[in-house]
Each structure stands twice: as C-alpha cells, then as structure tokens.
Amino acid sequence: MITKCLFPAAGYGTRFLPATKAQAKEMLPIVTKPLIQYGVEEALAAGMSEIAVVTGRNKRAIEDHFDLTYELEHQISGTRREQNLSEIRDLIRRCRFSYTRQQQMRGLGDAILTGETLIGDVPFGVVLADDLCINDGGDGVMTQLVQVYRKYRCSVVAVEEVPEDAVSSYGIVHGRKIDDHHLMVQGMVEKPAPEDAPSNLAIIGRYILTPDIFDLLRATPAGKNGEVQITDALRTQAEHGMVVACCFAGRRFDCGSVDGFVEATNYFYRRQFG
Asked: Backbone phi, then psi, for 129, in 5-degree steps?
C-alpha cells in the first residue's frame, strides 16, 4: 500500500565535527553498519522498497553505499569477509534508490518538499536516520505506523514521552486520546519552553505523510533561522483534516547527539557480540 520512503539526508551533522567535515553523518557506523542502512532495513520491513534520498554536498558516500562495488567484491570473493556484504547486497537487490539534492539547508519541511519530485502524489514514509529505532521481537516503528495508516488513512507521526527538561528540543503534540497508544492530534508546538509545553509527547523521526503535505509545505512560511518546519504543516493538516500520533513500541536512540550515538553503539555491540 505504501511503497515509498523518503530519507532527508542533507544536514551538515555539525555536532559530530570533525568526523562529518567530509562525510555524511548518516554514514557514521553503529558497530559495522551505517546509520542510514538501519533505517532502510526498517523501511523495507514495512513494505517500502522505493527509497528516495534527499542529499546535499559531500553526501556521495550514501549513493556509493547502496551500489555495487565491483573491485571490493572481487577482492573478497570466496573469503569469509564476503558474508559481511550479505545484508547490503540484499537491500540493493530488493530496493530501488533515487536521489535529489537540497540546495540550501532550510529545515526538515523544506527537505521533505524537495523530495516531492521523487515521491509524487502518493502517501509515503519518512525516516530520519539520526533516530535509530529498534523493537526486539516485534514490528519495527515504520511497520507500526503503516498499520495505523491503514486504519485511519491520514498522516501518522511517531511520538514518545520525553523528560520535561527535554521538550524544548522537540516538536510536541497534544490531542484527544483514542486508546492507550494513539491520539488524535489537536495541536503541535515546535520546541516549546518547558512551561509552555502542552504535553511531553515528542515527535521522533518517523512519519507517514499523505501527499497533500506538499501543498501545505509550499504555503508554510519560514520560521526561526529561515527554516520551514514540518510541524507547522502537520498542525495545519490536523486543524483541517486528521493526524494521528502513535506511541510506538520499541526503543529509540538519538544518534544525532554524541551521547545517544555512543549509547546505541554499546547496545548494538552487546547485541551482536555480547
């Protein structure tokens, strides 16, 4: 039903300088696998095999990663190391990748709008590779969002509770409770002060968006720092239609921060080798 997933990957990754001076932050490895590969695997598990990536300068490594490397593969052919490429080979075989560039860094909303040329007029997923999500023994977060979309046929955002002192780092939602895990969004606030936050439910980097979001983004004025916020467009969508927030099952690592990146690395190391 939903076959396309958009990966905004044009940011500079300034919190990881100098490591990200000449390479994409999405290619930083968690143990032996780059962040973006975890996201593509999650999208594919949810039935999304058409992977659209919005890139920027110094992001060529992403395209190279999801492509064949004949010299390398010839060099390790028949050795034990060849099995280390089995997962990426499977992704290359099962997915179709397309790319476009965001010319200026004007926020997540602008990055998603830039991806319209790759998505077209269909509902689609969005994965921010900075948020590494896992649900051991259960459905991945994108699969959970697809299930919600099938029921309500509207945009869906993944949310989780965050500490009160952290709400100023997120888009925060509030609304009418549908059940223990879902609510009808009635409002969103981008990075509110703790005393102004309507809840502690923070939007994380997983979305299902209906295609009318593109027209809403075009009509959304830039805000602070000249950035177009996806939360502004989603708030309009909620006011005039319907947006559902899903309190997902699983765990999220904020790999956009050094602390979260190290936490994820330790977790996946123990999971793989412990």
From this structure: -65, -20
